[in-house]
């Protein structure tokens, strides 16, 4: 029977946190190998009309099905406790990922359109299972980690995540580069599929340390999470709604530019998967070094100042894509350096979300936040895909200033949008939250 979190000896709490670090590192290694970038490059192998919409669905469909994560609070306790629910769904998600390349392989389905559709569906199911499991995981970890050190815990966890993703992405990139160089006549999808299976294996391995973390009682969460009033509570909480507004706007801005940022390096700058994964690995290494320090700053200064500074840095990324050309493609290196700044959001945002969620019923808040921000991200990503197919070859004139091609217009819009999101962050109220949590 799960124990009460407060009754666990201090050495068991510390051991649980160490196991959580190892779990996140192994999971991130698999996630880094099977990154969205890998799946996008796989989709680019399917030569079908309207590929922009197809790729945008790959980027957006997981977020759409992520709306179903709002069912997680009602499912936890009825189907299984948080411990079994979390581990079971993570296992099933890895199995779906391992099956993906076998299903979409050429010749298995009647046409490339069917293969592309299957890729979208399996990619979505894989993410849905992970989303449901992640709601349980965050609720579980929130009970195991006291609020006063949660920022440092998230910072260290972010270091393990960044390290794992860096190793996974670099390994995947090197393997694909080696295979395509040694065997130029072999279809690229074979290398992509092999990487996907290996990545799924790392995700299964990540369940070993996760299964050794103590299961703690979550009866209050189950009672409140399953009721309709508890599910609607986040939507009438003013403090939470301000955070939700910020998250939705940030997601919308990110979605509008997602497709353009995804295909511009490969189609226009002619950069291969290895080059792009190397850039993403460099970003991960930067986040790895800054993760713990960022966590300490969050505990000391608060979440908003750290997140605001991070977003100001992140906002400059699209400008580097704006200046990149086939003759000077390496301008985009500056974007990946700027995006190291996401570490502040990656640490501060979940910490702020947990602060704004009542400890006795946090799963509805967690599920609502990620579901609605995911919907905004997916809707704007699909809109970006439709715009890509319609206006990819169009030129936009700024009277008396200059003419912009489609990519330049999107990147400039992305820069302006990210800068404006920082102003919305000011509306989020963090003061007083720590005092409220100390009174529990």
- Spatially, the strands of the biggest sheet line up as 1-2
Compute the number of helices.
20
CATH architecture level-2 label = Up-down Bundle
Helical content band = over 70%
Compressed to H and E, one letter per element, the order equals HHHHHHHHHHHHHHHHHHEEHH
Count all strands and give the number.
2
Strand content: under 5%
CATH superfamily: MFS general substrate transporter like domains
CATH class bucket: Mainly Alpha
From the spread of the alpha carbons, the general shape counts as globular
CATH fold group = Growth Hormone, Chain: A
Structure report:
With 440 residues, the chain is mostly helical. The protein has a single domain (5-438), classed as MFS general substrate transporter like domains (Growth Hormone, Chain: A, Up-down Bundle), CATH 1.20.1250. The chain is built from 20 helices and two strands. A two-stranded antiparallel sheet has the order 1-2. Strand 1 and strand 2 (402-405) form a beta hairpin. Helix 3 packs parallel to helix 6 (112-144). It is globular. It starts with 9 loop residues before the first helix and ends with a helix.
């Amino acid at each position: 029977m799960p124990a009460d979190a407060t009754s666990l000896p201090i050495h068991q709490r510390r051991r649980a946190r160490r196991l959580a670090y190892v779990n996140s590192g192994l999971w991130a290694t698999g996630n880094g190998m099977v990154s969205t970038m890998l799946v996008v490059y796989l989709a680019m192998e399917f030569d079908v009309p309207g590929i922009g919409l197809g790729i945008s669905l790959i980027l957006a469909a997981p977020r759409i099905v992520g709306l179903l994560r709002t069912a997680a609070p009602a499912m936890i306790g009825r189907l299984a406790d948080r411990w079994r629910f979390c581990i079971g769904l993570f296992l099933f998600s890895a199995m779906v990922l391992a099956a993906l390349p076998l299903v979409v392989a050429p010749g298995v389905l009647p046409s490339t359109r069917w293969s592309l559709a299957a890729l979208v569906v399996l990619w979505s199911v894989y993410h849905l299972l992970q989303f449901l499991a992640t709601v349980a995981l965050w609720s579980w970890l929130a009970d195991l980690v006291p609020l006063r050190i949660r920022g440092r815990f998230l910072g260290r966890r972010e270091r393990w995540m960044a390290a794992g993703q860096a190793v996974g992405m670099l390994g995947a990139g090197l393997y694909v580069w080696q295979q395509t160089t040694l065997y130029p006549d072999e279809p690229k999808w074979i290398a992509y599929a092999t990487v996907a299976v290996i990545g799924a294996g790392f995700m299964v391995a990540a369940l070993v340390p996760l299964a050794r973390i103590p299961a703690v009682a979550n009866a209050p969460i189950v009672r409140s999470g399953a009721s309709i009033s508890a599910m609607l509570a986040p939507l009438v909480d003013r403090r939470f709604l301000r955070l939700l507004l910020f998250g939705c706007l940030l997601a919308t801005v990110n979605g509008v530019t997602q497709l353009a940022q995804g295909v511009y390096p490969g189609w226009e700058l002619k950069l291969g998967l290895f080059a792009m994964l190397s850039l993403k690995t460099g970003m991960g290494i930067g986040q790895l070094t800054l993760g713990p320090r960022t966590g300490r700053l969050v505990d000391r200064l608060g979440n908003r100042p750290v997140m605001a500074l991070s977003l100001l840095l992140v906002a400059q990324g699209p400008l580097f894509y704006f200046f990149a050309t086939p003759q000077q493609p390496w301008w985009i290196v500056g974007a990946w350096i700027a995006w190291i700044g996401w570490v502040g959001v990656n640490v501060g945002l979940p910490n702020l979300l947990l602060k704004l969620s009542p400890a006795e019923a946090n799963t509805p808040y967690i599920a609502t936040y990620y579901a609605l921000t995911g919907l905004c991200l997916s809707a704007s990503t699909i809109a970006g895909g439709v715009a890509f197919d319609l206006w990819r070859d169009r030129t936009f004139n700024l009277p008396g200033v200059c003419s912009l091609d489609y990519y330049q217009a999107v990147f400039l819009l992305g820069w302006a949008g990210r800068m404006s999101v920082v102003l919305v962050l000011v509306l989020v109220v963090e003061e007083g939250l720590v005092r409220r949590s100390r009174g529990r």
